[in-house]
Write the structure tokens for this entry.
Amino acid sequence: MTCVLRGDNNTVMDYRDYYKILGVERKASDDDIRKAYRKLAKQYHPDYNPNNKQSEDRFKEINEAYEVLSDAKKRSHYDRLGSDYSNWQRRSGGNPGDFNWDQYGGAPGGGRVNMEDLFSGGGSFSDFFQTIFGAGGARASAHAQPQGYQQELEITLEEAYKGTQRRVQTDGKEKIVRIPVGVRTGSKVRVAGAGPNGLDLYLIVNVAEDKKFERHSNDLHTTATVSVFTAILGGEAEVETMEGKLTLNIPAGTQHDQVFRLAGRGMPHLKTPKEKGDLFVKLKIQIPKYLSPKQRELLDEASRIKF
């Protein structure tokens, strides 16, 4: 979808369909958008297409689309513009250049977007982007620095918990980048001057799914299994944590799917790593498949107990 719009500086610009740029539907999930971006960013990254102006322009376009669609507030603002414009065009049938989009030159709910926040994601943004999200288009973006490139970086949950390092090589330069503890998917790590042409490089962190733990903000969720006899009589369960195994006391009469909270055993906070979230352990009760005659007799007797 390409439509011509006229901004408040009387310059005519193309409407940019960010969904089409990333090749996703308008109802695409955050995960679908992230996957599409990763695929295209790798395909058109300047490191893989040296001295290719067309690929570089396409890479900038992909970054701009992801900058908008990966941010809930920017995406909502952009969707409102697209919907209003389509409705206006159907009603008026007029020249797209006559569309009044001054009302869209700011953040949802009124006010202006903080340009430093917008450009912290990097990228050379178009006049269309700057007019919608900035304070009046190219004039407002003259001071909007830094600009740079984005590149996705995948790490494990353990690396996010402990912090890690990565070697980044671009334009023949190699840098060791420290990834701080507590990062989550979507966190941005700035590497000054590591991008093509000396621009900054922004590593967009993607924390891979973990087999043992599920992360919700700074809290972790896991499961532990005990026998039905331990659940009835009480006992102990071995629980996995990010720091190793520990023993959890199980009170008598514990129910299936009962959740235990272990304070301070979750993920460290990004800005205050000494503070940690909690670990929530959901208990699974294992039913034995085979019983001896004596065990069956005892269970049969126990089953007659009235609750």
